[in-house]
UniProtKB/TrEMBL annotation:
<dbReference type="Pfam" id="PF02597">
    <property type="entry name" value="ThiS"/>
</dbReference>
<dbReference type="GO" id="GO:1990133">
    <property type="term" value="C:molybdopterin adenylyltransferase complex"/>
</dbReference>
<dbReference type="InterPro" id="IPR012675">
    <property type="entry name" value="Beta-grasp_dom_sf"/>
</dbReference>
<protein>
    <recommendedName>
        <fullName>Molybdopterin synthase sulfur carrier subunit</fullName>
    </recommendedName>
</protein>
<comment type="similarity">
    <text>Belongs to the MoaD family.</text>
</comment>
<dbReference type="GO" id="GO:0000166">
    <property type="term" value="F:nucleotide binding"/>
</dbReference>
<dbReference type="GO" id="GO:0006777">
    <property type="term" value="P:Mo-molybdopterin cofactor biosynthetic process"/>
</dbReference>
<dbReference type="InterPro" id="IPR003749">
    <property type="entry name" value="ThiS/MoaD-like"/>
</dbReference>
<dbReference type="InterPro" id="IPR016155">
    <property type="entry name" value="Mopterin_synth/thiamin_S_b"/>
</dbReference>
<dbReference type="InterPro" id="IPR044672">
    <property type="entry name" value="MOCS2A"/>
</dbReference>
<keyword id="KW-0547">Nucleotide-binding</keyword>
Length: 86
């Protein structure tokens, strides 16, 4: 069954946490989903996050990664929005 879906934890910070009003999400996704799809999921649920799409970077398991990085079961994802002054 593990080849049908993976579960990832998404840590939310700054604008993402403000919009969701929780510090993290747990998502079930198809295996090998690129990390960029986590941002797409968030934008689908909260279209006001669209403006942050070009400014958001991705982290998986405490490493900065490119948007096309595939996710694995148990990964911890961080959406890294711009911070004040940068």
């Amino acid at each position: 069954m593990s080849n049908l879906a993976i579960t990832v934890t998404v840590q939310l910070f700054a604008v993402y946490q403000e919009v969701y009003k929780v510090p993290k999400l747990v998502l079930t996704l198809p295996p090998q989903t690129p990390v960029s799809q986590v941002l797409e999921h968030c934008i689908e649920e909260h279209p006001e996050l669209e403006r942050w799409r070009p400014l958001t970077h991705f982290g998986v398991n405490l490493q900065f990664v490119p948007p096309e990085t595939p996710l694995s079961n148990g990964d911890e994802v961080v959406l890294i929005p711009p911070v004040s002054g940068g």
